[in-house]
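REQUEST FORM: STRUCTURE PREDICTION
Request ID: SP-0412
Submitted by: Lab K.M.
Chain count: 1
Length (residues): 666
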Amino acid sequence: MGRKAKFSESAVAGRRPKLKPKHQLAPTVPKQNTKPKKGRGKGSPGPNKVGKTTKKSPSPKQKQAVRKVEVRYNSEDDEEEEEEEVGFSDDASEEEQAPANPFSDENDAWLKPKKVSLLDSDDSDDSDGALADDFGAEDASDDEEEEESEAADSDASEESEDESGLLPVERAARRLRKEQAAEKRLAQAELDSAVKINIAEEDKFVLPSTEESEQEAALPADLQTLKTRIHDIVHVLSDFAARRQADRSRQEYVQQLRTDLCSYYSYNEFLMQHLMDLFQMSELLDALEANEIQRPVTIRTNTLKARRRDLAPALIDRGVNLDPIGPWSKVGLVVYSSQVPIGATPEYLAGHYMLQGASSMMPVMALAPQDGETVLDMCAAPGGKTTYIGALMKNTGMIYANDANDGRVKAIVGNLHRMGVTNAVISCMDGRELVKVRPSGFDRALLDAPCSGTGVIAKDPAVKTSKDEKDIQRCAQLQRQLLLAAIDCVNAKSATGGYITYSTCSVLVEENEAVIEYALSRRNVKIVSTGLTVGNEGFAKFKAKRFHPNMIHTRRFYPHTHNMDGFFVAKLKKFSNTIPGAEPTPGTAETESKASGSKRKADPDSDEGFEEETGSQEAGPGAKKRKPAPGQKPSRGKKGEKGRQSMGKAAKGAGARKGKKKGKRP
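STATUS: Completed
RESULT:
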């Protein structure tokens, strides 16, 4: 089907096949190339019947010219292909040089142009059919052409200008790309409509009935079903007015959500209710998921023995993958992976770094101890914060590290020796009794109070089910007592200090803001800024509770927000050593009784006190009788009148016996 033909450049430009649909304008074609010569019709003789013309073998130059201008045509018949050689003659060469007459009589027999003019409407149909056969495309229906006609007419002029210098194959490829783009747009539109339909169907969430809930409770929990229902309920609660069921209240949705969360994440209802009150619905699932994942391992460089820029390369050489913990710390490093145990490297044993959580560094940074100060660490075990304080103080001043647990005090001793802290004194006693040992004797105090551990659930999953209301109240009561004792230990008149830092590893308001509010009402302290650049603000109001407005200066840390353990940090400034409401007025009975009581306690072995007791219990013959107070009747014996009579008879009998004895004497 491909035929070789010899054309001039002008003939090639004029005989391009029509590629555009019917509704587009056909390209202009020179008339001299489309009309046949005069004297030749349908029955005109072929090249063999013309005059005296004879065929000659082509020269090499003519062959080279033929190769340059040969063009292949694809005919409608795909099953036949033939190739004919071009005959050359002197007349043909002359006609070839003339641009006005591109064809000669010699090649008229084998070169048969189409009978129909390119400007005719039927020719456009044939060209479209041929293009469809060549590229495997189907003819568009009349309805589709009518729908596309409006858009195509507007772009017809632009396409004609763009495609004027393109080959047929290029124009067909461009058309194919446009059709593919249109199909892609239609497919995307259908997909979007299907997604909208699916979303509309998903919005119609129906809460399970009571019978369905009972049947589900009797069967093992289906985690996939629970997870899907949790997301559906959260989706409904995000726009409750538009997505709710008409006969269901918000309380029923919340109750079902709490039950499903307890089953899916293994919490008890008490703790889950507190977490639901603490976080919004959009944040609750992230917080619960974060509690299921371990926090990254972090280490703190000991500036007494090493620097971070020297420690990091040494650990990297041992196969530890680490990075700086963040811009808020100059000594912290986060460890992603390690080929060696991070707690058994030579650098660790030499005391160059300490395994410490990122959130545990925050209280010490908020305390900001200065050189030469006297600092109290009331709950110091296992010694991570104590060693950090020693590093910040550069082994100057004095650190009192105390802990009530005798077994944990050994860990403090070991870490202080390993880290090279030499200005620490260790004690083991109840923190509430420290005020009796050294009242108002410290410049700063750090209280990392014992708590419920709701911020470190990833480390201790038993917290999910082991904590209840009594545990929270017990911890809160102990925290209040320890905080008041820590405040009493600090000297408000200190030139550089007078600060108390309170911290817990809990996220509950009852153990954090409520404890600080209690201390504000019982002692002369105020909330000051912690100086930390990270963390969320504390709650100035929570549900029906209202706290001090300066509570926003406290800081909260969450696992899902800061990728560290849940923590709370508050900093207080003591401005007076007096205790509000506890100063007795001088000259009152309460003052005298306290003074006498203190005197007796201070001198318990005095003879005066014992004589007074014995005299009141066993009155001798020479003992003075106490006069009763005015308006008070004299006290009688326990046995009353009968007792006095029996005592009188006994005294008379004793006197008679004495008289008899005296009479018998010589």
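NOTES: Residues 135 and 181 are 17 Å apart (CA to CA).
Reviewed by: T.R.
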